[in-house]
Protein 1
Amino acid sequence: MPLAHFFLRERVRPGDRVVDATCGNGHDTAFLAELVGAAGTVWAFDIQESALAATKARLAAAGYAGRAEFVLAGHERLAEIVTGPVGGVVFNLGFLPGAGKETVTSPATTRAALEQAAALLLPGGVVTVAVYTGHAGGLEEGRGVEEWAAGLSPAAFNVWRCRQMNRSDAAPYLVVVERVPA
Ligand SMILES: C[S@@+](CC[C@H](N)C(=O)[O-])C[C@H]1O[C@@H](n2cnc3c(N)ncnc32)[C@H](O)[C@@H]1O
């Protein structure tokens, strides 16, 4: 199980409003849809129509189609589209496995989306960011995520960087941002 799912399972509750900021093939969207249940909503963002189609198909197959809003737009427009508070936001950076590597998340838009995600978080809510550094621009993007996360006020947010100790420094890692519970 991806480490991000441990944090999300801990915090996301039935009826919650949550966001998959990079839905890709829909694995995280389906997981979130399971957690929020029939009364909840998952906004699934991607800039590739093929990703949204794959995510829609995955949710329909799981019987969760009615739990998601599919958004063909960059996550840098998050706050424009999701206007109320949310319990969790998932970022899985990089490129879509099985598709071309030319469509990839980028440092500036990722940073803009992270700022909006943190601003939308409910107390106790979490933003999870899976960071991949192996592709062109990945290291720079990871540095941007860390710089942003490290600059968050400790009075308002708890922030962790989680790395596997038995993998190389180039392995993917997770950044988790929790809004301090009320
Ligand atoms: C690593 S994949 C996500 C995989 C996904 N979590 C899954 O379960 O299959 C990253 C995705 O981010 C998307 N993406 C790139 N830039 C984006 C942006 N500005 N806003 C939203 N999605 C973006 C890509 O199209 C790609 O599908």
Protein 2
Amino acid sequence: MTQAPHVIIVGAGFAGTYAADALRKAPVQVTMIDRNLYSTFQPLLYQVATGGLNPADVAYPVGSFAARRQTRYIRGDLAAIDARARRVKLADGRELGYNYLIIATGVSASYFGVPGAAENTFGLYTRVDAIVLRDHIMNGFEQLSADPEGRHEFAITVVGGGPTGVELAGTLGELRRDMMRATFPDVDPSRVHVRLVEMAPALLMPFQPKLRQYTRKQLVARGVDIRLNTRIREVRPDSVVLGDGQSMPSDLTVWTAGVAVPQAVTGWNLPQGMGGRILVGPDLRVRGGEAIFAVGDIALDVEHPAPQLAQPAIQEGRHAAEQIIRLLRGEQTEPFRYHDKGTLATIGRRSAVVQLSRPAAQITGTAAWLAWLGLHLMYLLGNRNRISTLINLSWRYIAWGRGGSVIVGDEPSKPLPGDARPRGRHVIKSLD
Ligand SMILES: Cc1cc2nc3c(=O)[nH]c(=O)nc-3n(C[C@H](O)[C@H](O)[C@H](O)COP(=O)(O)OP(=O)(O)OC[C@H]3O[C@@H](n4cnc5c(N)ncnc54)[C@H](O)[C@@H]3O)c2cc1C
């Protein structure tokens, strides 16, 4: 008996899971490989980082996902690809053969060579990043409470005024303004400083000017200090140095300014373009690789570049799976076309911006925020996660003034990045 063709999908994020879904009825055997046991819903990581959601709410076991689709799951880290022999090698030495390979491994932070950024900032790309950041934020607040004389302050800098930076800064502003009063009534909120630094002249650059202005006003109303046209020259353990040489205290710096493909991808011997993204042709096959597709954030079609967002990743994952089915039937592949349904970003409680493409429309405020909430619940994997997220977010935003955060650990889950020696007047030194 001949075996069904073997499709390997590496990466169980948006692109990989939608590719697996589209192959569930195809006459193929599918293996999913991911370095984690779970798939992470990145758009809600900032809620984990600010204590609104539990880490498990945004994670779904890849094993369960795969089992329901008659798909094999292997936990592993892709280390090398032999395109000629159609084999992949994992970091632990295991090797697997494939007929078709879909690469959907996403991206990570890009520091653009800024000195100290990699060592002295927190990221927000993985579930672990969100937990580490959350513990340091909450401990920062707690340290203020342990200092009733008010000798210390707590300065948080968010670098990058894209959707992630805006939602994080907005929620931190709300924590400072509303939650602290309930949880740490002895702390004067003016001892907490939330700063958002952006190199461009506006926040949320891909959005229409009206939505950008709304975003700015909403952040200002939450007490966020916005610095536009401001480049970060260097990040130190206790401060950031701006392009003009000015140094500003920063106990906790979060880097959301850009993404790039991890360095390890260069070892896969595939053609790479801007930001290290893997170059694909119109049908999403890797240039020069007959049987390899790249989809989601990691892929780049220079003729029709798609934004690095969840919707393009979902649509590309499905498209790659459909092309494999076409190839197995002996049919020609079809080019990928991204159907842009619109973009949205949230700022905080009952505050978001929605930019629809067809019909062209802009929505702000509570309606936009409810649309944001509904869409996120719809795309989360797993009913349990949908229910727990709905309950936790409802609790956070309804019981807002009463301190609606989830319980966090007693100690930071990981030491601060960079220099851990006591420094300056800032509270974080007491966490060393
Ligand atoms: C904080 C944050 C907030 C965001 N908010 C939004 C939003 O509101 N709306 C929106 O549209 N988009 C948002 N995005 C972007 C969106 O999450 C990404 O565009 C989307 O996740 C890309 O999907 P992907 O499948 O390409 O990669 P990912 O979802 O990143 O999945 C990649 C998978 O590959 C695995 N992996 C990586 N390397 C390897 C390897 N070597 N071997 C094995 N497995 C590997 C990872 O563990 C992961 O499971 C946000 C991103 C972040 C970081």
Protein 3
Amino acid sequence: MAISLKLGAAILTGAMAFGSVALAEEIPEVAVVHQVIDLNADTPAHAFRFEPKFLQVPAGATVRFKGSTGRHTVTAIPRMIPVGARVFEIRGKPELDLTFEKEGVYGIRCRVHGRHGMVMLLVVGDPSSNLEEAKAYLPKLGEAERVGFEELFAYVEAQNG
Ligand SMILES: [Cu+2]
């Protein structure tokens, strides 16, 4: 199945803690996030995923979400986005661009496959505005989602420490 950001992934290979990531330096004008079902994956957590599952962009950047079709959605978790940011959900759209102005972290899940750990973390600018609030919400999530976000938050803290 499609793997996004091959270039970024190649550049970052040495620094990656897990999976695919993209940092601001490697991001083209519009960063692209794919929703992927990899039927060859060894576990559900690897089969249903966002590619990349971690993305950090500057404030004002546009992110293109691809593949929100079939049962996939891109669903912002209301308690895991910055104060004043709009809650959003993309469904039934092969491609949609969203522009992010509010700095902070955005916890995102697929409404259907979140239970398999299909989550991603978008960081816009400085994550610190709502990082602690987003982490505090983790116990409310299902196990696979919680584990997925714990890994992503650990990565954010390592990158932005
Ligand atoms: Cu999905």
Protein 4
Amino acid sequence: MKPLYDSLTRRVGLAAILLCVPLLLGAERPKGLGDVQDVRTWSYPDYTRVVVELTRSVDLAEDALVRLAANQGAGRPERLYVDVPGIWVGRQYVDGLPVGDGLLEGVRIGQNTRYASRIVIDLQRYGHHRMFTLRSPDRVVIDIYGDRRPDKEPGASHSSSAKRLSMASRPIRKVVIDPGHGGRDPGAIGVGGVREKDINLRLSKLLARRLRARSFEVVLTREDDRYVDLEERTVIAESAGGDLFVSIHANAARNKSLRGIEVYYLDAGHRRHNLDVAARENGVPRGQLDDLQTTLSRLRVAEASHHSKTLADTVHHDLIHGLSQTYSSVPDLGVKQGPFYVLFMSSMPSILVETGFLTHRKESKLLRSERYLDTVAAQIAAGIGHYRTRNRQITAEAAASRKARTEAR
Ligand SMILES: [Zn+2]
């Protein structure tokens, strides 16, 4: 009993010291707070993305971000700020990170109160913003939209917004291929220790070759074995001005007899999903998917969603039928909807292909063979080719009916 008594008094004593020291020093870190782990920014023609990575989750209301007018007298630019409760930052980011990209001057984070940090974004230009939080790792994402340089390169920024407005009637030229996972994130581990990230990259490179042969331009979100954040993948795709986005993955299941191909497109509104796959591909525990879903449903993706479904149907059709020509019994798990962060892009139709189960003995073997991977790549490319043809027809019909209406006047 005595040791327990001793340790109790020591703890009480320690607590008293911990309570007093901060009051004396004023800047001592209170217990139980999270930290700021990293701050990153990406500049994209239409917006700049700020990601503040934290060591614990935070809940921020949408209107928590406050806009302040410039204070000429104090020499302060127009700025946005948000208070993040339960986060300790100390003086690490008090001088801020310079950005200077025509939209943001920079990002600063300071200790606003002992129990809250304040993220301040100094602006150069401002149109509107959106803010959301993500888990695993916990982070706050703030996108600031605006006309970066209205005097310079007006063509670039206008074509970009025009593209956003008329997704249906633009030619499909550039495909962004997203090999899932990479670097410290191996993805699913299959039979014999095969790593999903390696299969995804091999298949993606074969797909790139097949698409180039069909005179598509191709951009990959990674070309080697490296870790790329989910939000960075979407920034790469949008920065590249992609017309379509195809994320390549391989499946895994506890039930080793599960096998087959499935194609996903984003759905933010509905509640019935294959949540195991979405949780794995988003890198979040299943229990956290509700948060992501709430986030996604707040963001507008309706137009992209319609075109994404068509793209998913077309690729799925060619994939299943094409593979069946060469391989017997290709199990078809169908076209599905899911809350995938990587598919959230308002500017281009996006799909995620689960090319097979690495946990199934036979499928894992197939997915390791170059010949099978190239057949899968060829069929995905064929599907994308058919989508392009279909899109051309729709565009031509729309132009013809516009012309007819004009002549009728
Ligand atoms: Zn995956």
